[in-house]
Amino acid sequence: MENEIASGNDHTTAYRMLLCQLNGQKDEIASICSSSTITSQRGRYYDPRKLMRKPYDWNPEFNWPIWFFVERSGRTVAVKMANWDVVIDLRSGRHSTKPISYFNTMALLYHMCDDGTISGRDLLFPGSSTLLMALSNVGSRDIKTIELREKSFDTRWTIFTGADYVIDRLKSSRSLRKLLARSFTVMDLSIPDLGTVSHKKGALVQEQRDKSKNEELHTELTRAICENLDIWRQINPVYLNTMDLLRLAGHYYTTDGKFMTSHLSDDEMPPGCTDDRCKSAKHTIMHRIFDCPRFASQREDFLKSVGTDMQHLEKTLMNYASMKKLFTFIRDCSN
Amino acid sequence: MDLELTTTKCKRLVLSRGYQYGATTTCRINGDEVEDVDHMSIVGLYLSSKFKLSQDAFYDECNARLSANVRILYNLTRLNIIKTAKEWHTLIIWYISNTMFSNQYPLLAIDKAARTACDQRMVNSLRLAFNWSKNTPAKLVMLFANCDSSEIVVRK
């Protein structure tokens, strides 16, 4: 019964067994033992025999080899160092689905617990380490943390804590900095399984909804010039003035000072056009930019100056000079 | 601690969307009736009895908190020292989005009108910061400032 409680599968079942024992109901105990809950592999509670003891303080006078973590963006490096400047071993890893510092370090420690080739199992954490706090938290119900704590207990890791200046001194060692500057293999670690996105369908629908919401930011003209919103977003907003934005939205001033919108009703001729071919136009500025024969020479000059064609106008948005030429061309077309 | 409640410093806010339970009952401390209010601010978080954003209070608070930040962005625009859209995006998040949304997440999550008010305030602030006139289209302001709508921000 102690084993059942310690295995953490189900305390309620274990206490029911205890009650049956006290009541002398031995047949009942047998039926409880064969229940599926008790034979479940995964525990819901921690094993009280495998709690982490208070970490030892790492004294600056100690010089035996010790492991510690260096958390970098996108990866965590585990370093085994002796005598403050001698790097003996090095492992680097990141979590395959959530590569943030916390999970990178957790995944690397999982890996190190399973790795039989590792020698020396003293591990130094800064006193303020979030992972250490999580591992020491006996009230934690997080299965990943509980498993890691029990795994480190089983593989006999000894945990030390050091003051920040001690950790900084280790991290700033010249040999370590040299090694970290070089490129080396980073393991993609899938354990612990974080059980990401349990509602995949819902997440997909939401993603589509956000995407269509973003699409609403387009005007007819911006969509015609470049459909990719990310390219528009790379434009420094300081380079745009009110008039540029109004023109992109299809508004323009006529020569007699009227503020007009580009939208045309059926069979309405764009202002200033006399050619029958212009009758099919639905948007004045777009028509002038892309089709209108009256603006053919300006169009040709513009395309020659930016070195592209009307089907690849997105290229003009990628640098300041060609973007200015595009906006000048749009301004010319709306006058 | 053996602290006593001071009735004059206590106020009661009944949170309800339907039947007003508070209207039929009174609350007393040491025989003194506690004053009923329809809104209060708890550590900066504005709460109303209807669980809705009070737009007047919201705009007042926004004006107080945002005006200095918008002024900073406006000065940066005039100085023309920020050279990339990415840097502007970071500054806008820091000075406008975070300032405006940080205390409002609970209300924004449940109140669509509050989200619309936030988006409107955001667009107005950006127009001021970039010296764009009031008739510049809101969607282009959001596009070039690379800002997400409050609905997306709250969900994230």
Descriptive account of the structure:
Helices cover 44% and strands 14% of the residues of chain A. Chain A has 335 residues and is of the alpha/beta class. In chain A, the strands form two sheets. A seven-stranded mixed sheet of chain A has the order 1-6-5-2-3-4-7. In chain A, strands 8-9 form a two-stranded antiparallel ribbon. The longest helix of chain A is centred in the middle third of the chain and has 16 residues, at 200-215. Residues 36-41 of chain A have low confidence and may be disordered. With 156 residues, chain B is mostly helical. Helix content of chain B is 53%, strand content 12%. The mean pLDDT of chain B is 82. Chain B has a two-stranded parallel ribbon with strand order 1-4. Chain B has a two-stranded antiparallel sheet with strand order 2-3. A two-stranded antiparallel sheet of chain B has the order 5-6. In chain B, helix 2 runs antiparallel to helix 3 and helix 2 (55-79) packs parallel to helix 5. The longest helix of chain B has 25 residues, at 55-79. In chain B, strand 2 and strand 3 form a beta hairpin. Chain B starts with 10 loop residues before the first strand and ends with a helix. Classes of the chains: A alpha/beta (335), B mainly alpha (156). The interface between A and B is medium-sized, with 23 and 28 residues.
